[in-house]
Amino acid sequence: MGTTTPPRTLAEALRARGDESLAGLLRARPDLLNPVPNDITQLATRAGTRASVVRALEHLDRFALQTAEALAVAPDPAPYDTLLSLLTGDGLDDGDQRDDAGAAVTAALPGALATLREQALVWGEDDRLRLVRTARELLAPSPQHPSPTGLGPTVAEATAGMSPGRLQEILAATGLPATHDPVSAVAALSALFTDRTRMAELLDTAPVEALSVLDRLVWGPPYGEVTPNPTPPVKWLRDRGLLLPVSTRTVVLPREAALHLRAGRAHRVPEPVPPVVPAAAERDPQAVDRAAAGQAFTALSTVEELLKLWNGGGPAILRAGGLSVRELKRAATALDVSEPIAAFWIELAYGAGLLASDGETDERYAPTPASDEWLDLSAEDRWTHLATAWLAATRTPGLVGGQDAKGRALSALGPELDRSAAPDVRRRVLALFAELPPGTAPETESLLRRLRWERPLRGAAPAAESADLRSRLALWTLNEAELLGITGRGALSAQARALLDEGEGTAAARLAPLLPDPLDHVLLQADLTAVAPGPLERPLADTLSVLADVESKGGATVYRFTPGSVRRALDAGQAAADLHAFLAAHSRTPVPQPLSYLIDDVARRHGHLRIGAASAYVRCDDEAVLNEILADRRSTGLRLRRLAPTVLASQADPGSLLEALRDMGYAPAAESAEGDVLITRAGARRTPPRTPPVPVPEGPPVPDDTLLGAAVRAIRAGDTAATAVRKDTSDGPSSTTPSGALPRTTPAETLATVQAAAMTGSTVWIGYVNADGAASQRVIAPVRVEGGFVTAYDHTADEVRTYPLHRITGVAELAEDGKG
């Protein structure tokens, strides 16, 4: 008990860990929890699977990954000093700069090794460090998969299968004593390449051109092509084993020779310290907050305008899903932004649950019922809702317009836009912003270098995309954060800091004083325009947007009244008197006479013509108006004919007829089958209740502490069941239990044993088959046996359970040292 035996396997190393350490492993690698392993052995097996190891490697920082790569080319097992030497070099070419780098590596290596140990990628004591076999296979060099270090195979690996005669020729060329044992020959050649003095003497005799060849291969890739008749420098290297054949046309620089040329370093430049993100500019924090608040207000206005644009039913959905290029251009024109920015606003509204498909046969996008609730919120609460949805979204608008792995175009609101790394990148970018003093804008290229150090990519992007997806996501994050008002003038705003650290309520409170108060008035002009000197209250803005067209935006919004806009208000059920009263109540200037005349003139003609279904018909009490329509050449395509002095019939549908007559300068109104004028109101179309799109997580979610604690207890209990020491009861043929099999006893023996255990309070080992036929081993402490059931504390499940006796395959007592 006083000595500690070094672990022989990963399972033994995990078994020796404390509960907190096991919980840390499951927190760092949550994929190991699905489902919860039965015991430590199964946990170790799952931690060594290829998919799990690849996922763990992808989450390492640059130096932890360099440490794992160095272990992959080190002897197995490797002492700590050997690993340190591979990262710092052998010290024979040190200068002041190399000394500083070596000190940084020496200081950072324990932390990197602790990270690898915590994630079960490395196990063993410092004198016998072992990299998990799957990780070694992924990181070790091979012709099909070059090592990230640029090193080739060892001399022993490269000479495997080489004829003894060829080995003798290499030994003779290098001046080594001949031996007929291939193993001894390989060992002698390896010893030469790892001996700094003898290797230096050998290279001193090399031609200059041969040294140039080695310079091209030393940092990788270590493979080169040769002709059947190689040049003298290549032949010199090949004769002395400095280039070993891989195939008839390919040679490789062996690892030992490359390490000598590298002064013992596995990496050209170890990166033990994360790159610093310097400040690109320092600005007044209050100016940053004001700029961000202004952009936040613009964001709200843009999303509201998008909802209004699709209020009566938005664009149709493509058969493959998403928005067509034409509809995206139309939305961009309406919002007065570029197409990529329009795609961002559309995806943001979709991700926030404000837009969705209506699910109809002719499926279209439309605002959701949640959009009405969102519009009723205060401006600051609307902004926090959008910002929170953006932070968590995995949909990536920056991909719109690109192509997927099969060459198909990626459309806004379409499939294939989810990138699970997006939320993590956004959070990390903003965290780096937050580390700087308020008002400080970081340098973009340094920020990207920091992100690449924290998560060096290993196959995270699809083949059709750029290899550095995280850098692209970071650049999109910078642009989107500025558009949304998370940042202002390139620096993180105070309201965004509050959103990240303290939650939505605090962020809304920080933003509220910076947003302009909504106004209840406009300024009417004599040129049929109205100027809104700031944001308008929602009822006023909604009514004015129907009565007038937006002519320009900015600090003040200019609305223009036209016959078409006035007719639109009349179609929505307003009367001329209502419009006059509305303008008089909300204008700080007198209502101009031209505007009053415009409203009265359009109202006088509105509804003079009536459109119904024949396919469609036109009726009007004034025969002269119908005669004028029939005589107009523009009506030829409507195929009109007179049914009565005051009625015309058309082959066109009512909607097309209505639009055609309006284009001809008339002001017709649609009517119902009962002859009543149909009123069209904005916002009449809504989707059924919809939930926002669920972000696609980057692997399994990180479990909470409660789940981790329960999982660790279950694994410990299962391990107790799997490793418990049973009493030797082999004197009866019915009680023998082969290793790994369920115990087998007769029903009478089972009943007697559990009754005795209940009386003495001892623990037993049982085999159990549940109702689904699944067999398992359990360690239980029986409490009560009655009615064909045994009630016991189950150490495996860490709870009290009741088991039917007929489902217990057998029972065995535990040895005294096997309890607990």
* Major β-sheet annotation: 5 strands, mixed
Cα(first) to Cα(last) distance is 17 Å
Using DSSP, what is the number of strands?
25
Determine the mean pLDDT.
86
How many helices? The count is 33
Which spans of ≥5 residues are poorly predicted at pLDDT below 50? 459-467, 730-739
Rounded Rg: 39 Å
Q: What general form does the structure show?
A: extended
Strand content: 5-15%
Helix amount, in percent?
Answer: 40-55%
Can you list the strand order of the major beta sheet?
18-19-17-16-20
Structure class: alpha+beta
Report on the architecture of this protein.
By secondary structure, this protein is α+β, with helices and mostly antiparallel strands. It contains 33 helices and 25 strands. The strands form eight sheets. It has a five-stranded mixed beta sheet, with helices on one face. A five-stranded antiparallel beta sheet has the order 24-23-22-21-25. Helix 13 (208-217) crosses helix 14 (232-239) and helix 24 (494-501) packs antiparallel against helix 25. Mean pLDDT is 86; it is low at 459-467 and 730-739.
Q: Which labels suit this protein?
A:
single chain; 820 residues; alpha+beta; five-stranded mixed β-sheet; five-stranded antiparallel β-sheet; 33 helices; 12% strand; extended
